[in-house]
Write a structure and sequence with these properties.
The structure is a homodimer.
Chain A (H helix, E strand, L loop, with lengths): L1 H25 L3 E5 L4 H12 L3 E6 L19 E5 L9 H6 L2 E4 L13 H22 L4 E7 L10 E2 L10 H20 L3 E6 L1 E3 L12 H10 L3 E5 L5 E2 L1 E3 H12 L7 E5 L5 E2 H12 L3 E5 L14 E2 L2 H7 L7 H15 L5
Chain lengths: ~350, ~350
């Protein structure tokens, strides 16, 4: 018993130390978040405001994507909000030139939509990163850039452990353009010493995510369907493994890398580290929401080519560099998400 | 002696068989060459006209690049010539829709210039491939696409044998955008069965190459400098190894893959297979041209980051798939190139 108590105390102290370290790093820092009204950007903005940063949010509020004014409800008076498109780089020059850290999240967010709008996907998910880096190279080369990439850069992983060194054979334009952005960031780090970190996110979900359609996060969409007591469609048996990461864990990862010197120049996986069967994710939603049902249908033929296989995420690099391991369970994350949408659903329909 | 004669006969028969196979494949085929007035494109056009193909050449004659009307001198009445930019894809619709094979060579060709014109490099070296594939997906999905990629997709190789599976960490925008095009081609092959082959070229040189400046092929530029009896500048000691491939060998490789069914969906190295010290390449030029001299200077500091290390090319995949191994020696290739420019220098200044 004594040992257990001692362990708990030790962990608490470490967490408090880390909280102090994060505050001491982020307090009064000028942080720019592109796509800052979106899911990840807005959750990060809330946390950064709490840590005392000067937060600037830029978002084009393109209705296709996740930007939502309500996402900064509660901190709207504490952030600079710029409604513009990051491709109009002249319009945000002053903020880019003065930023200490840029979180670059503005993106076309659906790997399915990418094929309907291939050039816009290239523009938003690749060209905008190049524009940003070119500006920083000339005007603010010590600015840190932290980029949200995706496991979709890998393509089919065939049940292998997903490592940062796994081969990159993307099966979608979305994945190709995320990969192109990764290559820009790594080249500008090597050739021009612009400090950047690439986080490859697995399957993200949580509060403030758009739930208007099924092309982005299925977790959010299914929570909405369950709340509306609808059938949730599963292709095949739903046995494919996915790594669902809750947004609070993601935000913690994105904060930690900014103050970890060893993170710069690196690609780092950011997942929950837990592999869950797709069908079990759906069952958890139905159990938590206490509504909705499952409908099994065969795989549509055009989905087979882009099915990525079972996902098992190696998080050892994240832990080694930042000391952080995600901890929110799927049930806990789904419960928090459900409670959020129950209270705020009218802002997300 | 008897054995040697027998061997020679055997080789001759194989070459004749292959010549017959190439003619039988290419005769009356509709071939579109983007960038067809450039170095590789025009040399291929000459060969294809001889093989009886219906050749269409498209080129924007951008003075930055290698397009040159004189390059199709002798076959100008046997090719369809379209002066336009491939980004105006509507203008070449009819040719794309009817092509049996597209050789996609139109490109920004200097990895040094890429950084001065990052968006144009992205446009020409990545976006144009996407436009082409999107058009083919909708209108001509069985058309073969053969793409000229570059060893620059790899970045630093550190003296390792350059294989098709080597890690891709490009150090230039040129290399990143060539890699992006590779990923497009592979994705459209996997997802939509558009048959494509990617050839990764090492250091190409030969007749019909532009020699206006030193930002493209140094071999051509140095031949010009030697012909003008100038100093040829070498950074450091010039001991870095390069793989110089003569254009006739390149053209043969590009022809062979089009009629090799096993080549589709593949990335294949195309080099000479011989590693030559940079300084020895320069000495060979000075010996062949019998003019010019060497000047050694220290490496400029900004070059160190993009120096790619010694190159040794693994050609086993090329040989296995096409049965072809390049055979033109550096001395022979430089002699042919020199004789060409001696007779035609006024068209290349």
């Amino acid at each position: 018993m004594w040992r257990n108590i001692s362990n708990i105390k030790k962990i608490d102290t470490k967490l408090i130390d880390k909280g102090v370290a994060l505050r001491s790093y982020f307090e009064d820092k000028r942080i720019l978040i592109t796509g800052g009204l979106g899911f990840l950007g807005s959750n990060l903005a809330h946390k950064l405001v709490n840590l005392g940063s000067e937060v600037t949010v830029i978002d084009n509020l393109n209705p296709r994507y996740g930007g939502n004014i309500f996402n900064i409800s509660g901190i709207e008076k504490k952030v600079n909000l710029i409604i513009n498109d990051i491709r109009n780089i002249e319009a945000i020059n002053a903020y880019l030139a003065n930023a200490d850290v840029i979180y670059h999240f503005a993106a076309q967010v659906s790997y399915i939509d990418a094929l309907d709008i291939p050039l816009e996907d290239q523009d938003l998910n690749a060209k905008s990163t190049l524009l940003l880096l070119e500006f920083l190279r000339k005007n603010n080369p010590s600015c840190k850039v932290i980029f949200s990439s995706s496991r979709m850069v890998l393509g089919k992983v065939e049940g292998e452990l997903m490592k940062e060194t796994s081969p990159t054979n993307p099966l979608s334009l979305y994945g190709i353009h995320k990969l192109t952005s990764e290559k820009y960031l790594q080249m500008y780090y090597k050739d021009f010493a612009i400090p950047s970190v690439i986080l490859r996110i697995t399957n993200p979900y949580g509060i403030r995510q758009q739930i208007k359609h099924n092309k982005y996060s299925l977790v959010g969409w299914f929570i909405r369907q369950a709340m509306e007591n609808k059938d949730i469609t599963i292709f095949g048996e739903g046995n494919q493994l996915r790594d669902y990461i809750y947004v609070d864990d993601m935000v913690e990862g994105f904060l930690r890398v900014a103050e970890s010197d060893n993170a710069f120049g690196e690609i780092i996986n950011l997942g929950s580290g837990v592999s869950t069967k797709f069908v079990d994710m759906v069952r958890t939603i139905i159990n938590v929401v206490e509504s909705g049902s499952i409908k099994f249908v065969p795989w549509p033929s055009n989905y087979e080519n882009i099915e990525t296989g079972d996902i098992k995420t190696d998080l050892s690099k994240l832990e080694k560099i930042t000391g952080f391991t995600p901890s929110v369970s799927l049930e806990e994350g789904i419960l928090k998400t459900y409670q959020y949408y129950k209270n705020n659903i009218k802002y997300y329909l």
